[in-house]
From TrEMBL:
Transmembrane portions of the chain: 12-31, 43-65, 77-99, 119-138
Alphabetized InterPro entries for the sequence: Bact_2-comp_sensor_kinase (IPR050640), HATPase_C_sf (IPR036890), Sig_transdc_His_kin_internal (IPR010559)
GO CC annotations, alphabetized: membrane
Residue ranges annotated for the Signal transduction histidine kinase internal region domain, each copy included: 166-242
Positions in coiled-coil regions: 146-173
Alphabetical UniProt keywords: Coiled coil, Membrane, Transmembrane, Transmembrane helix
The organism of origin for this protein: Aquimarina amphilecti
Protein name (record): Signal transduction histidine kinase internal region domain-containing protein
Single GO MF descriptor: phosphorelay sensor kinase activity
Length: 358
């Protein structure tokens, strides 16, 4: 079923064409009426010239330009333009004889001055063709630009949706990993019937609240992320007791600074999971500083050995992918291992102008 808007557009287009050709007819009458008072002759001559002008114009704008010029078939376009010029020139010459024979009864002096030679009809016809062709090319260019822009917008929208789905998938992977580690710790306390179990459950409740209600946000305050880390560390302190030697150094934390939720906790988890007890101590040192519009985070844990599994664990590989999605080129991640320490350093840059809003 043809829509009302489609019909309305067709009617508007038809009216515009009618107005254009009426304007051309009046322009012809004015142009060919120069230095003559024989308006009937001028109008009849202009009216006879109109089919030639209309046919030539639509041949160029509706056939040659869209089928050959726009599609970059330049040789065929030039060839058919030559054919079109020859045919239209023939009819323009006929219009000259029409004016001479039928309108002035073979009296050359009876012709309007502007029609006594085919030159001026040639100029008039091809000027109109030129104007119409320029308008047609402008219209094609506008349509092409609009289509290209719409296509770019669709591609961008598809890419954003894909990134959003990938990011959500990565978050889903991080959550079970985090819960698995925390529940294992709680299970150990329950087996020991430790008095710290209720406090541990409370800490876990705080972590789950953050996990369920904050992690779906695109950004959270840095202080919230730090509180989350501190709750997690408190749980691990209960688990490791005197074996754990940990230091936390948080400096110059700005209230307005925001980060992606659950961004730093996988590094903390890996320090406890892959850290090794040396001289009866699991040593972990963590620092976080805000410098201008950057966050400098580092964490290191004691370790004798270093394997690719440590470097590319589930949680760490996911956070690397998240960093590439959320912060793109605005981050630096360095992972290193020396004789006694496994170290991760992360710098988040340009926090005032994040590269992604997920």
């Amino acid at each position: 079923m043809i829509s009302r808007d489609f019909i309305l557009k067709k009617i508007v287009k038809l009216l515009l064409h009618v107005i254009f050709w009426i304007t051309v007819l009046l322009s012809y009458s004015y142009f060919f009426g120069h230095n003559t008072e024989n308006l009937n002759y001028v109008f009849s001559f202009s009216l006879f010239l109109m089919p030639v002008t209309i046919g030539t114009t639509y041949t160029v704008t509706e056939v040659l330009i869209p089928k050959y010029l726009i599609k970059e078939k330049y040789l065929l376009f030039i060839l058919y333009c030559i054919y079109m010029i020859i045919i239209s020139a023939f009819f323009i010459v006929i219009s000259f004889f029409y004016g001479l024979i039928f309108l002035s009864s073979l009296k050359y002096e009876g012709m309007a001055p502007m029609t006594r030679t085919p030159l001026f009809p040639f100029i008039a016809v091809y000027f109109v063709v030129f104007i119409a062709s320029a308008l047609s090319l402008a219209q094609h260019n506008y349509k092409s630009t609009s289509v290209n822009q719409e296509l770019k917008n669709r591609i961008l929208e598809a890419q954003l949706k894909l990134k959003e789905q990938e990011l959500n998938y990565l978050k889903m992977q991080i959550h079970p990993h985090f819960l698995f580690n925390t529940l294992n710790t709680l299970y150990g306390f329950a087996l020991k019937k430790s008095e710290d179990t209720p406090e541990m459950i409370l800490k876990l409740s705080n972590l789950l609240d953050y996990l369920l209600y904050q992690s779906d946000k695109p950004l959270v305050s840095l202080q919230e992320e730090i509180n989350h880390i501190e709750d997690y560390v408190a749980l691990e302190k209960m688990r490791f007791s005197d074996v754990l030697d940990i230091s936390l150094d948080f400096e110059n934390i700005k209230i307005t600074t925001e980060v992606a939720p659950m961004l730093l906790i996988p590094f903390v988890e890996n320090s406890f999971k892959h850290g090794q007890i040396i001289n009866q101590k699991l040593s972990i040192h963590m620092s976080l500083k805000c410098i201008d519009n950057e966050i400098h985070f580092s964490i290191k844990n004691s370790a004798h050995t270093f394997t690719e599994k440590d470097k590319n664990g589930i949680g760490l590989s996911n956070i690397i992918k998240r960093l590439s999605l959320v912060y793109k080129d605005n981050h630096e991640l360095t992972i290193s291992k020396d004789q006694n320490w496994y170290t991760v350093q992360l710098i988040l840059k340009n926090l005032k102008t994040p590269t992604n809003e997920f």
